[in-house]
Amino acid sequence: MRIFCFALLASVCLQFSPVIAQETATAPTATAPPQSVKPGINKSFLDPDLDVDKWVKRFEVESREVFRARDQIVKQLKLKPGDCIADVGTGTGLFVEPFSQAVGKKGWVFALDIVPKFVERVGKISDILELQNVTPVLCGQDDVRLPPGSIDAAFICDVYHHFEYPAQSMASLHKALVPGGQLILIDFERIPGKSREWTLGHVRAGKETFRKEVEDAGFEFVEEVKIPAFEENYFLRFKRK
């Protein structure tokens, strides 16, 4: 299993660069950590006893819109052979195989999640299906942990409302994307008086708020794509400035 990790790289840099080590040691005290926009939203996923099979049965079923629409979604991403894409909040790995096929042998898929058991599952799937261009990544709740300019596309599907620190997470994604790279945001329509009670209670804000947050992070809105299978979700395309 191939899990992407930068801790080793950081330790090597400190070992062989006295300047970096010295600057790190004398760096000023860090500022106060950012405030969560919805504390506890990821508590159940971070449970060390997480039942992965439970979430597979919940995520990978025809009753879920993005599962039914997965082929339409992948088509609309317009991925090219050789592209590198980050599947942010990959979960059970629903899009890993189709992304792997879309970018081809010269492309790459980084399957990111904050949940260790999801990352482990994606690694196993990649090994079983012999997906040689997939790297599972255990990312942080405020940092995707990808090198600058390392991806051509970022895919956030039914996950943005789980970002506890959206400004910080989006800033790290902005750095990871190449200039002009695309970012796809799929999430639930949250319309008081129209949306389901679950959506109103679970999703913290509506489409316009999420769009503004992404734009404020340095992305340009390109278009809203209509997915025929969508009734509760929307698909927004952005470009990194």
Describe the overall structure.
By secondary structure, the protein is of the alpha/beta class. The protein has one domain (43-240): Rossmann fold, CATH 3.40.50. The protein has ten helices and seven strands. The chain has a seven-stranded mixed sheet, sandwiched between helices. Helix 1 crosses helix 2 (18-25). Residues 1-28 have low confidence and may be disordered.
Q: What is the terminal-to-terminal distance?
A: 34 Å
What proportion strand? 15-25%
- Average pLDDT figure: 89
Q: What is the tally of helical segments? A: 10
SSE map:
Elements: H1 7-16, H2 18-25, H3 52-59, H4 65-68, H5 70-77, E1 84-88, H6 96-103, E2 108-113, H7 116-128, E3 134-138, E4 151-157, H8 166-176, E5 177-188, H9 197-202, H10 207-216, E6 219-225, E7 233-240
Parallel strand pairs: 1-2, 1-4, 2-3, 4-5
Antiparallel strand pairs: 5-7, 6-7
Helix pairs in contact: 1-2
